[in-house]
TrEMBL record:
Superkingdom of the organism of origin: Bacteria
Species name: Nocardia uniformis
Record-annotated FAD-binding domain positions: 18-347
Protein name: FAD-dependent oxidoreductase
InterPro entries, alphabetized: FAD-bd, FAD/NAD-bd_sf, FAD_aromatic-hydroxylase
UniProt GO MF annotations: FAD binding
Amino acid sequence: MAAIENTPQHHGEAPRKRVVVVGAGIAGLAAALRMHQQGWDVVVIERAQTRRSSGYLVNLHGPGYDAAERLGLVPALAPRDIGFFTSVLVHADGREKFAIPAAVAEAAVGARALSVFRGDLESALYDAVVGLVDIRFGTTVQAVDQHDGGVVVTLSDGTRMETELLIGADGVHSRVRELVFGPEHEYFVDLGHMVGAFPLHQVPEHVPEGAGTTFIGPGRTAAVMNLGPERSSTFFTYRCPDSNAELALGAAPSLTQAFGDLGGGVADALGQLEADPAAAYFDSVAQIVMDRWSHGRVVLLGDAAWCVTVFAGYGAALALDGADRLGTTLAAHGDDIPTALDTWETSLRPEVGKRQALARKGMSRFVPPSRAHVWAGELMLRAIALPGIQGLVRRAIQRANN
Ligand SMILES: Cc1cc2nc3c(=O)[nH]c(=O)nc-3n(C[C@H](O)[C@H](O)[C@H](O)COP(=O)(O)OP(=O)(O)OC[C@H]3O[C@@H](n4cnc5c(N)ncnc54)[C@H](O)[C@@H]3O)c2cc1C
């Protein structure tokens, strides 16, 4: 059996507590940053061999923006902000129905908002911690053993590590959750939809510059954004009875099967996907619902604990907010880690519960179940574009954020 790796102590320094963070996504890197700021020795374990740099668009406003600000990320993110853009609702063949100008979204959301690629957010976090924390790529966790006062984590390379705290930030299919809390099926709530999103290496055809086209039909939505080179991307979501079959088929064949009949920018986007299928994020839409996010000195964070789904549009925001609050609460409770984790969970649960409920309610807006729902949704979007309505929309968004 391999010897146990303890926290390195430097001569003359007060002993530092160690935290092992599993997952170098948004939640994991945000936790690494916050815990380093609190003076902890941080080790990050990431299964992927290297960082993922591109991805889909994420919006940060309200508490998500506030958390990014508290973590010191806004100066790095502001130059990468995509900003607001015009949305053009289209027919299946790509012809325009009506447009919602960028100014409408801007008036509704306000100035404290960022729209960035997930990869840019991840890069901002990575740049903030690189050289300060120990990040081990191509590694995962194989076993977790808790004892009085600590946790021993066994890694896939055979290393055994003694730590005061283990943070499982390893996403919706979390291995830490499986090892400590039990199998995925106990917490996984399949919402019966798929989501696919990928960046476009070439500016998409048939989409006006500085705009995104959106087709919303019964059971499916496709959006293609033309925001210039290196900034254009797509978003697809559709209802499906068997997500495992779609996952087995893969992103390009599944999305082509579900959207291949559409015109406009969709055909070009699907063509680009076929040339680089690995660039796609493609998964079932599922929430993680748990009674407890911590067990002793092991805590789950981000999608691993509470995935709210893309229909909430809030997972990255919660990952940042959750990581930031975790650092603050641990600092307030000194060595009493289990009490700190309880306090942190109590403070965060109402927000997570609200976002999960909003996502379930919002599903029919993203993927209308019938033609009648499509028409009702269009009526609402046309109304939003009317002068004078933006104030009402802003107040509705503010209410959701408070
Ligand atoms: C299309 C789309 C649009 C979205 N839009 C928004 C939005 O507008 N606003 C918003 O706030 N949120 C949005 N989200 C949600 C947001 O992206 C996620 O909720 C957030 O990124 C979750 O971060 P995470 O770090 O918890 O998980 P992940 O991003 O899944 O990161 C988990 C990390 O752990 C690693 N890992 C996994 N398993 C292991 C293992 N066994 N060992 C070691 N490492 C492991 C993974 O490689 C990964 O790096 C969107 C999501 C999607 C799919």
